[in-house]
């Protein structure tokens, strides 16, 4: 029996897709290998959203060249977004690889591996949803469920619509059945995935409606979702979040910039004022809401004034956490034709907002000290003075002392912060 090993880079959707690939391979008689050294087939699931992600994946793939030369029969494949982006040309830059397969062609993997021929299969399939498949994920209390694929937004800096195709939603019945199957395996929390979950629509069921249906399942304890696009979130969504206790009080809402001029250049299709209004509406509907975001600095043409508008927005909203990064030029996007900023300016701006947001995150988490919070226990701690860690409904990771099992819902009293991470003890009884 041939063994496979998957190396995954990138977002949660890529983790989910690696699970789909595992399901497809195991259905065809392949067996999972714990390490690359034990595998007959190595697949590298790649990300193209930023240049740094591509460099990391390319470096890892290149490191496999020695294994290929020393082990007869070893086959190496590149799958995912880089496969779609570069296609057949990867055979020139990585001459030792055997196959290249894009996100809409994973069903062909058993056939491609089996025929032993060098193959590139990267065509877009606008009908492919992998609806009936179940992603093979690591056992634990939390799991991902992809509810849709693709993106229609065409932000001027982003390659995702070109690599993952147009939006298409899974039937809501398949999502419900997958959730039920996961809860039977002990999963208590699901995270619904999509490039823009708020665009979900299956016939008459929109995204708030899907959440309401999932909340009707008895065994699921918590429901999260990511990512939301500000132009598509609605007050209806906030009302469902506020009225359904199973929907976590956490909203990840990427803002990217606080400057209207830059938002227009990015083709984000909302204004700074609209974004501030959305956050205010969400906080008005959902108690103890945690709001997190993505912020990009150094977009082509960003002036000091534009940057200060972003700084001001971060200070005004006081995000609980932010993913912050420098603009990365992606060939083929509209922004690639704009004049880039000097790297030293981009780095200084990134350092500034990281320092600012880190202070805000610590201040936000300090408000938990002395309070009791409910955690879903996600794992044990092997180091330090902690026995385990878990997450609150509003997405705060808390370390704790006390004995329990992974998957338990426990109450913890927060005593202090370790860095910016809350630390506490389980309350017995």
TrEMBL record:
InterPro entries named among the record's database cross-references: Elp3/MiaA/NifB-like_rSAM, Methylthiotransferase, Methylthiotransferase_CS, Methylthiotransferase_N, Methylthiotransferase_N_sf, MiaB_methiolase, rSAM, rSAM_horseshoe
SUPFAM superfamilies: Radical SAM enzymes
Domain of life (superkingdom): Bacteria
GO molecular function: 4 iron, 4 sulfur cluster binding; metal ion binding; tRNA-2-methylthio-N(6)-dimethylallyladenosine(37) synthase activity
Signal peptide: none
Annotated PROSITE patterns: MTTASE_N, MTTASE_RADICAL, RADICAL_SAM, TRAM
Record-listed [4Fe-4S] cluster 1 binding positions: 11, 47, 81
One of the record's GO cellular component terms: cytosol
Coiled-coil blocks: none
Entry protein name: tRNA-2-methylthio-N(6)-dimethylallyladenosine synthase
Organism the protein comes from: candidate division TA06 bacterium DG_26
Gene: miaB
């Amino acid at each position: 029996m041939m063994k496979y090993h998957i190396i995954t880079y990138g977002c949660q959707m890529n983790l989910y897709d690696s699970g789909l690939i595992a399901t497809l391979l195991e259905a065809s008689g392949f067996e999972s290998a714990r390490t690359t050294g034990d595998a007959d087939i190595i697949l590298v699931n790649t990300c193209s959203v930023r240049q740094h992600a591509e460099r990391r994946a390319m470096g890892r793939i290149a490191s496999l060249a020695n294994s290929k030369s020393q082990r007869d029969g070893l086959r190496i494949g590149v799958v995912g977004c880089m496969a779609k982006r570069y296609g057949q040309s990867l055979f020139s830059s990585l001459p030792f690889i055997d196959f290249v397969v894009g996100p809409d062609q994973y069903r062909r993997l058993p056939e491609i591996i089996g025929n032993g021929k060098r193959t590139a299969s990267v065509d877009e399939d606008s009908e492919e949803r992998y609806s009936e498949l179940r992603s093979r994920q690591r056992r634990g209390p939390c799991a991902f469920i992809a509810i849709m694929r693709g993106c229609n937004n065409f932000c001027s800096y982003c390659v995702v619509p070109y690599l993952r195709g147009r939006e298409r939603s899974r039937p809501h019945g398949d999502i419900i059945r997958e959730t039920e199957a996961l809860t039977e395996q002990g999963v208590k929390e699901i995270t619904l995935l999509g490039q823009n979950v708020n665009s979900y629509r299956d016939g008459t069921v929109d995204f708030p409606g899907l959440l309401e249906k999932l909340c009707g399942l008895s065994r699921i304890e918590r429901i999260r979702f990511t990512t939301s696009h500000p132009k598509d979130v609605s007050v209806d969504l906030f009302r469902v979040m506020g009225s359904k206790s199973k929907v976590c009080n956490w909203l990840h809402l990427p803002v990217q910039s606080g400057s209207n001029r830059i938002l227009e250049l990015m083709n984000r299709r909302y204004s700074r004022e609209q974004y501030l209004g959305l956050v205010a509406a969400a906080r008005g509907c959902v108690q103890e809401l945690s709001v997190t975001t993505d912020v990009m600095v150094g977009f082509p043409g960003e002036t000091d004034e534009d940057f200060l508008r972003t700084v001001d927005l971060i200070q005004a909203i006081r995000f609980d956490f932010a993913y912050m990064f420098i603009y990365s030029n992606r060939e083929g996007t509209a922004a690639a034709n704009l004049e880039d900023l000097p790297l030293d300016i981009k780095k200084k701006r990134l350092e500034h907002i990281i320092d600012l947001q880190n202070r805000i995150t610590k201040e936000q988490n300090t408000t938990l000290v002395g309070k009791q919070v409910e955690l879903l226990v996600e794992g044990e701690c092997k180091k330090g003075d902690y026995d385990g860690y878990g997450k609150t409904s509003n997405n705060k990771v808390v370390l704790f002392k006390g004995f329990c099992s992974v998957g338990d819902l426990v109450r913890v009293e927060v005593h202090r912060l370790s860095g910016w991470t809350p630390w506490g003890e389980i309350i017995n009884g």
